[in-house]
Amino acid sequence: MMEVVFADAVYWIASVRPNDQWGEAAKQAKSSLGAVRLLTTDEVLAEFLTGLGKGGEKVRGAAAKMVRAILNNPNVKVLAQSRDSFLRGVQLYEQRLDKEYSLTDCISMNAMRSESVSRILTNDRHFIQEGFEILMTEKDETR
To answer: Is 0.90 surpassed by the pTM of this model?
Structure first.
């Protein structure tokens, strides 16, 4: 069975934005994994589009095209946004008031737990605090 790895908005942004500071780390992390299936959520894709919203027509067009490609890619499972996922995200957010997790992070963490996924294509250290392994690191950082 093929390993499943979660893909965060920072990974999708680094994959599409020209000269993104995390572009090389995203590429290296993905290639080091070999054949994997990716997991993400509608909320992550919304954050991805929001993150590129001020990039101009060319970047916005590429972002929209990429979301369509992600949704149609058989190697990417996109969990649908629902009232339940939202409320469970709010619950985790409330349980971690001492952290700086975004609501999307909380929803992603819940999705990873429900799908038994422990590794994530991101540089967001909040995921380490919850026991997940981040795969996008600076060259001098260790995983």
So the answer is: yes
